[in-house]
Amino acid sequence: xxxxxxxxxxxxxxxxxxxxxxxxxxxxxxxxxxxxxxxxxxxxxxxxxxxxxxxxxxxxxxxxxxxxxxxxxxxxxxxxxxxxxxxxxxxxxxxxxxxxxxxxxxxxxxxxxxxxxxxxxxxxxxxxxxxxxxxxxxxxxxxxxxxxxxxxxxxxxxxxxxxxxxxxxxxxxxxxxxxxxxxxxxxxxxxxxxxxxxxx
Length: 200
Prior knowledge:
With 200 residues, this protein is an all-alpha fold. The protein has nine helices and two strands; from the N terminus they run βαααααααααβ.
């Protein structure tokens, strides 16, 4: 009897590539570009920071996303947004400190700072005691789905409700996404469209 030949496993070669479809909705095109640059954010963080930057864009920049032109906007991630907010708060506090204060007001201010430092130390200790485990955070993040799945859901919802305004569309879609079961959210992980890029 001859020896059996063992077949070596060869990984399949995929000839399809996911491509994001460009729509006439400027906000959806903006969110697609935002997702490409900050891949890995949860759907909640992505919607929060993307919507915040979208409201700060000029009319010409919004029109560029609607007319399918190459984006020239500098996208700001969560760390950059927090840094800008801290700079603005520091500038406002410096202006307030430049104003003249009476001796009584200065003493009251020092008492407030002392009380704030005590309360902040107590709150920090309480937060360390009641800090959730990393596994719990990962479970809640996986339960809400990924940003890619949310983008697929948002595009499908926009095609069914083309008459809705961008703000109403975003609010309604986010509310429905949070109510979806985990199995339905997982179904949107698969791409809604693929493009053939070649044949062997």
